[in-house]
Amino acid sequence: QQRRQRSRKMCSGGTLSILRSDSYADLSQYRDQHFRGTRYEQERLLRKSCTLYVGNLSFYTTEEQIHELFGKSGDVKKIIMGLDKVKKTACGFCFVEYYARGDAENAMRYINGTRLDDRIIRTDWDAGFKEGRQYGRGRSGGQVRDEYRQDYDAGRGGYGKTVQCQ
Amino acid sequence: RARGRPSNGAAGVVGAGQPHKRRRTSEPSEIEERLESLICRVGEKSTSSLESNLEGLAGVLEADLPNYKSKILRILCTVARLLPEKLTVYTTLVGLLNARNYNFGGEFVEAMIRQLKECLKVNMYNEAVFLVRFLSDLVNCHVIAAPSMVAMFENFVSVTQEEDVPQVRCDWYIFAFLSSLPWVGKELYEKKDAEMDRLLSQTESYLKRRQKIHVPMLQVWTADKPHPQEEYLDCLWSQIQKLKKDRWQERHILRPYLAFDSILCEALQHNLPPFTPPPHTEDSVYPMPRVIFRMFDYTDDPEGPVMPGSHSVERFVIEENLHCIIKSHWKERKTCAAQLLSYPGNNKIPLNYHIVEVIFAELFQLPSPPHIEVMYTTLLIELCKLQPGSLPQVLAQATEMLYMRLDTMNTTCVDRFINWFSHHLSNFQFRWSWEDWSDCLTQDLEKPKPKFVREVLEKCMRLSYHQRIIDIVPASFSVLSPANPVCIYKYGDESNRSLPGYTVALCLTIAIKNKASNDEIFSILKDVPNPNQDDDDDEGFTFNPLKIEVFVQTLLHLAAKSFSHSFSALAKFHEVFKTLAESDEGKLHVLRVVYEVWKNHPQMIAVLVDKMIRTQIVDCAAVANWIFSSELAHDFTRFYIWEILHSTIRKMNKHVLKIHKELEETKARLARQHKRRDSDDDDDDDDRSSDREDGPLEEQIERLQEKVESAQSEQKNLFLVIFQRFIMLLTEHLVRCETGGIDVFTPWYKSCIERLQQIFLQHHQIIQQYMVTLENLLFTAELDHHILAVFQQFCALQA
Known about the structure:
Chain A is an alpha+beta fold. Helices cover 31% and strands 19% of the residues of chain A.
């Protein structure tokens, strides 16, 4: 049985780099600036992570909807909703953790860039949830992107915070 | 003959990636990368013609042969195996190389034969077919002599004369022979018509005598109209017969080698060495039979180019190539969509229809799709983005057709249709012409069409929210709309205060809100009487359904806000759960209460059951028994029930694999430890110290061995319970129908028997281990023939 497996690898060990291409599942350029540790350590964690960051959610999107959608690429272990630091209400992002990395990879390949609650959502590898990371890092308590944006987005509290304060 | 400047090989190729610095040589690995890149990219969109690109590449490779021959051989063998959709591009390339360098051609053929033998040895049969096809097209490129190819096919077909071998083994050799003929049939027939006629006649008699019991299990529709779901060898045979009748004229395949005929016919050919098919062994696993999925024909696109008929060889080649493109690019959805849409022959064939048909063929394939289901949804969305003016219409037409034929569609395939359609709609604001489907409103709710719409709407709701679904369907569809997913708390109203346990429920509510501990909960529950028993045991911890009811109802109601709230509740009061659900009856009752509380919210039931299995509050067998219990009979045909059951089986399977892996890893660690010790000290043997070192690992291995055996036994028991319950349920129905003189084939019966089939198909690898037990214990000759047929069809799949 082992010999067969080794032979299989030799046989299929000649793969082609154009067929190895897996751009959707590769690491993006983004690195969490608040990560405690070296860049090397961060990338090591990202490469074996089973956790995805999910962004551009509507404030009204529920854990149930996220579970249904992300359950299509495998068994979901845990969902942690992103919260406004002040209001403690949903502020448009979450973490989805799978039991198996392969399932997270399939989410990156087939769920990233599709719609949830009519919005194109974006997924990216996350080094792993740590207490505190469920809060938005914007000055007003939500996500940074909602501080400065100029457009009106009904699913994300209307205008950006700076615009609202004018 | 060569023209212009002689080639410099890959090292000197401008634009091959390296800026043209004044270097002596590039790194060998860079050269190999460049070679691979050049070879893989030939045939892609280019300013020059394919012919001139091939010629140029042949020159480059010829120049590199002295230094990089083995690498070039490896790359070419690999593209033959992994890029079958570009078969004729690469056979042409090999032909040109062979014309320039006869020895290289010979070495390539030898390498291919070695690769073919390796593939067959390690059960890579699907890739082996591509290698055989490549070899046969090399006949067209004057690399391989036709008579030697015919000889190889004679050896293939003679496998059908072997005794005591599985039918699927002979099937593969016949398939490898027949499926090469669209490419090389003409040439072989011209050179060796008598031998070919003999081979075809032997093939025909094999196909006539092979058994096809397995076919009904693999068909997407049970009806033969409008398109019969043919067994794959039958379909291919019809296609080859038609090809022969057309005197082997085949016009679809792109054959770049035709442009080089004058060069290639000067080349010397090689003879294939005699090829003996490797014998059948116990470890041989051949591909399962297939049914060819067809949903379109030439009447479906009256405006566009004519779709090749179901028995035309063009249809076969197009479908093969489109499947190969998906196989090559499944990880890269944009590339995959682009490659599918740039399949040559765009204006001669209704490409969009072929693509949609091939994608649904994979999505509905039994036992399972080649790739994860969600891939197909996203691929179709990418295709819609690239062809917004045409593809969405074809998809809508396909959806309509699938809806119309729901009455005869296999239940598993209906599941996949539901999942695909609801997910697809959620990406397009749920826009659909529901009124077109109002015919389903007048039908009995258990009939396939209204059932389908109900399940779709329920899934749509899971991806959005209840009011959204009410808004998107016409008012007349409200009878099919999903229930508002709210929790039902039996102790909620003052009017329920006469219910036994009501006061305890109130007490519990207050306690839990005040962050009570498990112990406090136990002491509150101690006061709950046991309606079941008169003889008490002192602790009162035997099965007490009322205790379970009060506790589970109250807790789930308090934690109803979200999944996370419920999971926290399960975690916090894990101890109470474990104690109350210690017995089998306890586990069953917990599941019953969960259902009572959350019957409006099937998604919540599913996630709670999942969590309870993972935290060992209930076990898999309890879930199986609960699903077949009379309390759930009303929901028995609903999709969510089967999602729960299959998820449960999968968890069991993964658990067994996980422990097995742990055992193998620990054994490997022990082996490495031995090796280290053996290599370290030769003369300083101290047996006692080595034993001491081994001790803990050996103990661990023994423990894990026990764990594996117990897990495997639990797994087997789970399947036996499921099969047993199916048999009981189906037998009951059959007996009732027989004595009542009513027709057996109710919608419920069709659904149930197909669910039984689904168990076999979806977990066939595991179930193969239990064949003897199943045959002797459950699926015996006394069983009603309707039920036994399912088992026999399953046995026929690997026979």
